[in-house]
Protein: Sterol 14alpha-demethylase
Amino acid sequence: MEAGKIWNVGLLLVATLVAAKLISVLIMPRSKRRLPPAVSAWPVVGVLVRFMKGPVVMLREEYPKLGSVFTLKLLNKNITFLIGPEVSAHFFKAPESDLSQQEVYQFNVPTFGPGVVFDFDYSVRQEQFRFFTEALRVNKLKAYVDQMVTEAQEYFSKWGESGEVDLKHELEQLIILTASRCLLGEERHLPLPSHPAPSPPRPSSQEAGRHIRNHHSFSQTPQNDLLQCFIDSKYKNGRPTTEAKITGLLIAALFAGHHTSSITSTWSGAHLLTGGKHMSAAVDEQRRLMEKHGDRVDYDVLSEMEVLYRCIKEALRLHPPLIMLLRSSHADFSVKSKEGVEYDVPKRHIVATSPAFANRLPHIYKDPDTYDPDRFGPGREEDKVAGAFSYVSFGGGRHGCLGEPFAYLQIKAIWSHLLRNFEMELVSPFPEIDWNAMVVGVKGKVMVRYKRKHLPIN
Ligand code: HEM
Structure:
């Protein structure tokens, strides 16, 4: 054969191979895609009934049958669940262009106001979250702690020598007072009701604007609050934040932190008050710290409260207020399940993971339904053994909670005060979970009998 012909045949061969590859990539995979197994139920009604029983009940039933990756067809949506640290890395780490929050969390827009957080494309949202990060840096947190401690002292000084209270209600009130003090400063001009409602109230933009101008022009000394941080924040192009945006950011902060923190402080209390040896360990720790530091409670002293930290963290493992995290997928991706099967998840699926379910996986946590704060202690560290996404009450990765340190400081400030100053006893039954709330919390009242004490130290 002449050289030219050989060349042509070669070219034809290469072109055929390329075309075959393209066809296999573009057409074949649709039929050969290894889709995750689907939850079986009667179309529409059957699936709705399963889902209405509660997503966590559905996960409990399906995970043992279908494994760590599976799809639920709900009306015209496909929801693919990635459950457990072995499969959820992509959920937490994927760039916004592949898995985004915007569409699935749009329902927040009317609350925060237009142009804030989920009403903006990712680059602007990222800048707004940078304002949060700056406002919650350690040096700022140190100043907030003083306000948290003062607020707790003032609040509990109004309790009598002894009495009975609904702890859930008390902590809801205290958390909103503390949060508004840290957010808005001592003046708290924003019209928060004297008996705050369970939901953070949304001030009108006029009222908020007035407060913002006052804050700016009348303060003689630098203010140590989130509002001041937001006022001082600037976008990369030097543009300052507007009053409306600042209001929205403040409301986003209140919203993200209020229910979540008050629910967690109530669960921490319910578990401590029924926790026997864990309660004693937490009180002993307070005694040791008082011997070392006297009555001083500041950022450094709170940071030494490791036993209390683990007690709160364990309450939050069992009862994460955000039970389901969602993303909308914009690009196909593959995931290898814990069981070793490779699946392809098509774009346009909603992708979900569940802190409430994943935090109780028995191959990660020993006796997962038992309250055992020591599981996080030296030598066990069950929250780390299976990697970064073993403990996901605060999410993780790209969108991990920015308020986590703030929340722990606030709850520790409250509980260290209670442990030092009161004997307490739970007089209502151990509370149940209120699965119907959007931020899943405690059902009914949590009645507690208290008596003042002063913790004796050696
Ligand atoms: C116990 C209390 C809290 C819990 C359990 C909690 C939980 C979470 C979770 C699970 C996420 C991730 C959501 C997702 O991936 O879709 C998140 C994000 C976030 N949290 Fe928290 N949170 C708490 C307190 C706070 C507080 C006090 C603040 C503010 C002061 C805050 C601000 C935020 C913000 C700004 C984000 C969004 C981060 C991003 O998307 O980049 N949180 N939180």
About this structure: The CA atoms of residues 36 and 70 lie 5 Å apart. The pocket of protoporphyrin IX containing FE is lined by residues 101, 129, 132, 253, 256-257, 260-261, 264, 320-322, 325, 393-395, 399, 401-403, 406-407 (CB under 6 Å). The two ends are 102 Å apart (CA to CA).
